[in-house]
Amino acid sequence: MITEHDPQTALDTRFSSPDATTTTWLEGREGLAAAELYWLSTVRRDGRPHVTPLIAVWCDGALCFCTGPEEQKARNLAHNPRCVLTTGAGVLHEGLDLVVEGEAELVRDDATLGRIAAAYGAKYGEEWTFQVRDGAFHHDGHTALVFRVAPATAFGFRKGAYGQTRWRF
């Protein structure tokens, strides 16, 4: 199991209201864990961006998601593991938008996959119950690869009293 540590935290005053304060990593991490929908940005072999919505869970200090081995995002990550996951409220004047930059690591360890599968079930319900075997998720005759993205850098964009916090790990 991966342990988490507190990142370096800084408010970027160039993009923040004069009265803004930093957002704590605890609040950022809780926002990442609670979000229902995320946007994954990857890069195709020819350099074009690829963005897709997906569901994910926070487990062992990282955002974890699954995808079919032939899906575009899986092919992109096999070529270039650097990616960005974003989530937020989708409104202008309230809430906290979050961005995680990192490298997607393919998870093959069945014990880790078991923890991630349990997190999916707890968060999204029995519709998202996966069997774990042979280093992957299995559901209704389909196989899914599981990736984890531990933050290298993350950003919190507070709205209302606008503040941009950067967390470096």
What's the number of helices?
Answer: 3
- Overall average pLDDT: 96
Poorly predicted runs of 5 or more residues: none
Report the helical percentage.
Answer: 10-25%
Distance between the ends: 17 Å
Named CATH architecture: Roll
Number of domains: 1
Describe the structure in brief:
The chain is an alpha+beta fold.
Brief descriptors of the model:
169 residues, alpha+beta, Pnp Oxidase, Chain A, twelve-stranded antiparallel beta sheet, 3 helices, 12 strands, Pyridoxamine 5'-phosphate oxidase family protein, F420H2_bilvrd_red/Heme_oxyg, oxidoreductase, Split_barrel_FMN-bd
How is this structure best described in words?
The protein has three helices and twelve strands. It is an alpha+beta fold.
Strand and helix layout:
Layout: E1 8-11, H1 25-34, E2 38-43, E3 49-54, E4 57-59, E5 62-67, H2 72-79, E6 82-87, E7 96-107, H3 110-124, E8 131-133, E9 136-139, E10 142-149, E11 153-158, E12 163-168
Antiparallel strand pairs: 1-12, 2-3, 2-6, 4-5, 5-10, 6-7, 7-10, 7-11, 8-9, 9-10, 11-12
Pfam family, one: PNPOx_N
Biased composition (Polar residues): 10-20
Organism: Streptomyces mordarskii
